[in-house]
From TrEMBL:
<dbReference type="GO" id="GO:0016831">
    <property type="term" value="F:carboxy-lyase activity"/>
</dbReference>
<dbReference type="InterPro" id="IPR015422">
    <property type="entry name" value="PyrdxlP-dep_Trfase_small"/>
</dbReference>
<dbReference type="GO" id="GO:0019752">
    <property type="term" value="P:carboxylic acid metabolic process"/>
</dbReference>
<keyword id="KW-0210">Decarboxylase</keyword>
<protein>
    <recommendedName>
        <fullName>Aromatic-L-amino-acid decarboxylase</fullName>
    </recommendedName>
</protein>
<comment type="similarity">
    <text>Belongs to the group II decarboxylase family.</text>
</comment>
<dbReference type="InterPro" id="IPR015424">
    <property type="entry name" value="PyrdxlP-dep_Trfase"/>
</dbReference>
<keyword id="KW-0456">Lyase</keyword>
<dbReference type="GO" id="GO:0006520">
    <property type="term" value="P:amino acid metabolic process"/>
</dbReference>
<dbReference type="GO" id="GO:0005737">
    <property type="term" value="C:cytoplasm"/>
</dbReference>
<dbReference type="GO" id="GO:0030170">
    <property type="term" value="F:pyridoxal phosphate binding"/>
</dbReference>
<dbReference type="Pfam" id="PF00282">
    <property type="entry name" value="Pyridoxal_deC"/>
</dbReference>
<dbReference type="InterPro" id="IPR002129">
    <property type="entry name" value="PyrdxlP-dep_de-COase"/>
</dbReference>
<keyword id="KW-0663">Pyridoxal phosphate</keyword>
<dbReference type="InterPro" id="IPR015421">
    <property type="entry name" value="PyrdxlP-dep_Trfase_major"/>
</dbReference>
<dbReference type="InterPro" id="IPR010977">
    <property type="entry name" value="Aromatic_deC"/>
</dbReference>
Length: 514
């Protein structure tokens, strides 16, 4: 593709995107396709001859878009937000065209140095002092951030245990290592524990789904009594199920009592809100934290993928990940940062570009306004739910997530969610919180208003009536079925055991007369 053709194709894509954002609110929010639907429409082998770009774009529209769930739709309330700001997308566009591989400072100095600067811009997230051994790095996802920190914690624990028990090999220590997290924590923690081949204890949280220090201390004490070795604790700010946040202050005090414990905070969602001063009470106790991750693609208008990870001691993080083959070494190893030592992957995209573009273009005040608007709309929606006596809100609404259910009617709640999602007018996701089945309503799309909340609530109310009617119909059918079943049972028993229903027969069989 020459530059002239590239320019023409770029205009086609931009026009397509502009039109998409104009119509997205008017199309169904979700799809109706079934697994492997694309195999019917796309060739199994790559073509020998090139296709026109216009044809490729047309195939994208006709064949691929029908299987897209529209995360930027105003009635998309599932999961959590996924950033789609235009300026961040443009930064990704530039990054892709530059084709930078930032595995070392020498490979592309600006790639490394912009990441250093970008990770320092949201300075209120950083919990290490200037000139300390800490620092920040961009990871692919929160799963990778948690895994990297657990690997580092494991490496530090094994290093210490080798010194203390030189007669034992690493395998003998590894089977005793235990990581701890809340029962509400992300599945990423469990996945990291599986990869690290360590035990994971999920600690029961309190009634607000917040993990407290005394709950953690009880489990740790029990494990130590059985000869196990606590080495990692992962707290959460903004759980997936209900956006609850663990008590960092009390958890940190417990973690620091154990010399080997690495205390990590997964703030994938709620960590974004810390850009607003009113949310910084969540950071009480952060001085005891060893590492902290958040996902700016969730709530700061940065496109996926991009996870920010800050550590108190970068040398401890790097120790288990250092890799220095000759082809990537350079003459500034003691002065420059090489981020390949901070992550699983050696090669790195220039993700810092979209953080820098987003912060520069929007500014802190606009990002604060965006987050506050979502929080305000969540409270507004909470009020709508509470205005109907058939419903109850089940979580403490602080961020942009509202969990609700139909009062004491789990099956009706399930039916309501099924009816709503099947309609394709709205999309929400379920969660199981303290044994209760609830519907998660996440305020996601940018530029939402109270009018959008009203629209979503009206859709929910419409399908509430449908769900109630459906359940009433099933209940009526169940009653008829129960009566028929009882009649059938009585008839069968009368044929097989006539004396059961005719006492005269019973007497006759016993030698009595009528």
């Amino acid at each position: 593709m020459d530059l002239k053709t590239f320019h023409e194709c770029t205009i086609q894509v931009v026009n397509y995107v502009m039109n998409y954002f104009k119509i997205v609110k008017d199309i169904p929010v979700s799809h109706v396709v079934k697994p492997f639907y694309l195999r019917e429409f796309l060739p199994e082998e790559a073509p020998l001859k090139p296709a026109k770009f216009a044809q490729i774009l047309e195939d994208f529209e006709r064949k691929i878009m029908p299987g897209i769930t529209h995360w930027q739709h105003p009635q998309f309330h599932g999961y959590f937000p996924s950033g789609s700001s235009h300026v961040s997308a443009l930064a990704d566009f530039l990054s892709g065209l530059l084709g930078v591989q930032g595995f070392s400072w020498e490979a592309s100095p600006s790639c490394t140095e912009l990441e250093l600067i970008a990770m320092g811009l949201p300075g209120d997230f950083l919990f290490h002092a200037d000139m300390s051994q800490g620092g920040g790095v961009i990871q692919n996802s929160s799963s990778e951030a948690i895994l990297v920190c657990m690997l580092a914690a494991r490496a530090q624990a094994l290093k210490d245990l080798r010194i203390k028990f030189p007669e034992k090999d690493d395998g003998a220590h590894l089977i005793k290592l235990v990581a701890y997290t809340s029962e509400e924590a992300s599945a990423s923690v469990e996945k990291a524990a599986v990869i690290c081949m360590v035990k994971l204890r999920k600690v029961e949280s309190d009634r607000k789904c917040e993990l407290q220090g005394h709950q953690l201390q009880k489990i740790i004490s029990e494990d130590i009594m059985f000869g196990l070795i606590p080495f990692f604790v992962c707290a959460t700010l903004g759980t997936v199920a209900c956006a609850s946040s663990d008590n960092l202050d009390s958890l940190g005090l417990v973690a620091k009592k154990q010399r080997l414990i690495w205390f990590h905070v997964d703030a994938s969602y709620a960590g974004n809100a810390l850009i607003c001063p009113e949310f910084r009470t969540l950071l009480k106790g952060v001085d005891n934290v060893d590492s902290f991750n958040m996902n700016p693609y969730m709530w700061m208008n940065v496109t996926y993928d991009c996870t920010c990870l800050w550590v108190k001691d970068r040398f401890n993080l790097q120790e288990g990940l250092v890799d220095d083959p000759l082809d990537v070494m350079h003459k500034h190893p003691d002065q420059a940062v090489d981020y390949r030592h901070w992550s699983i992957s050696v090669s790195r995209r220039m993700r810092s570009l979209k953080i820098w573009f987003t912060l520069m273009y929007h500014g802190i005040e606009a990002l604060q306004a965006h987050i506050r608007n979502h929080c305000k709309l969540a409270k507004y929606f909470e009020g709508l739910v509470k205005s109907d006596a058939r419903f109850e809100v089940t979580n403490d609404v602080r961020c942009g997530l509202v969990c609700f259910r139909m009062r004491e009617q789990e099956q009706m709640t399930r039916e309501l969610l099924e009816q709503c999602n099947s309609s394709r007018e709205i999309l929400m996701t379920p969660a199981l919180v303290k044994g209760q089945y609830v519907i998660r309503f996440s305020v996601n799309a940018p530029h939402l208003t109270e009018s959008d909340m009203n629209t979503s609530w009206d859709i929910i109310l419409k399908y509430t009536d449908v769900a109630i009617a459906q359940q009433a119909k099933l209940h009526s059918t169940d009653k008829v079925y129960t009566r028929l079943s009882a009649f059938r049972l009585k008839w069968l028993r009368s044929m097989g055991e006539p004396e059961y229903f005719n006492t005269g027969i019973a007497k006759c069989r016993q030698g009595d007369t009528f």
